[in-house]
Amino acid sequence: MSGLSNLIMLNFSGSSCSDLAVDFFNFFPSLQKLVLQKADLRSVIPKERYSKLLYNMLNLSYVDFTGNGIELINTKLFTKQKRSLETLILRNNKLPYVPINVKDFPKLSTLDLRSNKIEYFPESIMNEIDEALRQTERKHLMIYLFKNPVKCNCETLTFLEWLNERKIFFDNVANYTCQYTDGSLTTTSWTYRNLQTIQVSCMAKTWLLISALLTFSLVVLIMIVAWSYKYRMALKYWYYNIRRKYRILHDSDTEIERRKYDAFVAYHQSDYKIVKTKIVPFLEGKKGLSLCIHQRDFLSGLYIADNIMDAMKNSKKILVLITKNYLESKWGKFELDMARMQIFQEDRNLLITVMIENIPPSKMPKSLLDIWERITCIESDDSFCNEMIPTEGLHAWKQLYESIISL
């Protein structure tokens, strides 16, 4: 084995190297030329454990891995050959890219990538090659790209321009067969000669694509807006409900026991006298129920919407005094919408309306008419507005009490 240390050239072509020992080449420290054509390297070269396969060959200047079906090369494979590698032949493989950083190999003069699967050079590779050319110790660089599936389309125009204004040598005078934008075959030289026309065409396609995307985005936005408007009450209900749950979870000081109240009383401020002198004395004073009255029970410092959601969620029933002023008010509409959503969520009859004023159906909000069959409606009598003290003997007040306590 001692003679192998002086070996300069090794041709192992045609042999199967799929089970090559990791330290196989450690016995050839003086090797300058390595030829492994059709040696079944495709399963060896990419693996991390073979990254030091050539580690002991510091003088290696010529490498030929032709015809091995290689799709990927470990980036560390040629680490120890950065100061020695002059010729790298990777012909007849399946590489879709340039497998080394050319500027890291200042002596590299020949890079043979013929018959691979390279479609173009990305800008990073072009920049690396340009930087490599500025290295003072490099004499020249020849790159072979013949029989690669080069693309001549909008994406590769920068590469084609760089290729034809080259400062390095390419085989076939950098004129390669390529696939044009419409799928037909042309050449890189023809594409370069018609570069301006193609650029204009590509720009038009780009703007057409942008216009199509903007149009699609606009249509989607309109659909979202329309859907949001159609289901705005449901969205608003869930928004306030989620915000309420989040607030309760993160603020134990304001946490309220669920179902604290027998009923939340919703009314217009102009009807507060009825609530104060009729509703509260009868339902709380005589019947011992617990009511949520916003002038009395809403928490200061909390948003009105959040107070309303808390009151509804913590009440067994929702009692609404229907008047013209209430139906026209902002918060009256909000309370009805939120009550409607809660009816659907809990799937039970929890809304009680007391018609303080005689309002025709045509003047009723649609949100209330839509759930008319699922609510309890009480026609008020004179006792709601006059000085008469309500008693259980009055039909409307008895019906009101029984509606609240019923499940």
Describe it for me?
With 407 residues, the chain is α/β, with parallel strands linked by helices. Helix content is 36%, strand content 14%. The protein has two domains: 2-201, Leucine-rich repeat, LRR (right-handed beta-alpha superhelix), CATH 3.80.10.10; 236-405, Rossmann fold. The chain contains twelve helices and 15 strands. The strands form three sheets. A seven-stranded parallel beta sheet has the order 1-2-3-4-5-6-8, with no helix packed on it. The chain has a five-stranded parallel beta sheet with strand order 12-11-13-14-15, sandwiched between helices. A three-stranded mixed beta sheet has the order 7-9-10. α5 (232-250) crosses α8 (304-313), α5 (232-250) crosses α10 (330-346) and α8 (304-313) runs parallel beside α10. The protein is elongated. The termini are far apart.
Classification by helices and strands: alpha/beta
Assembly category: single chain
State the CATH superfamily name of the largest domain.
Ribonuclease Inhibitor
Over the alpha carbons, how many angstroms does the gyration radius reach? 42 Å
Name given to the CATH architecture of the largest domain? Alpha-Beta Horseshoe
Count of helical regions: 12
* CATH topology value of the largest domain: Leucine-rich repeat, LRR (right-handed beta-alpha superhelix)
Instruction: For the record, give the distance between the C-alpha atoms at the N and C termini, rounded to a whole number.
Output: 97 Å
Q: Could you tell me the mean pLDDT?
A: 85
Major beta sheet summary = 7 strands, parallel
Following the backbone from N to C, one meets helices and strands in this order, namely EEEEEHEEHEEEHHHEHEHHEHHEHEH
Strand neighbour order, sheet with most strands: 1-2-3-4-5-6-8
Query: Helical residue percent?
Result: 25-40%
Shape: elongated
Number of strands: 15
Number of domains: 2
Q: Which CATH class of the largest domain?
A: Alpha Beta
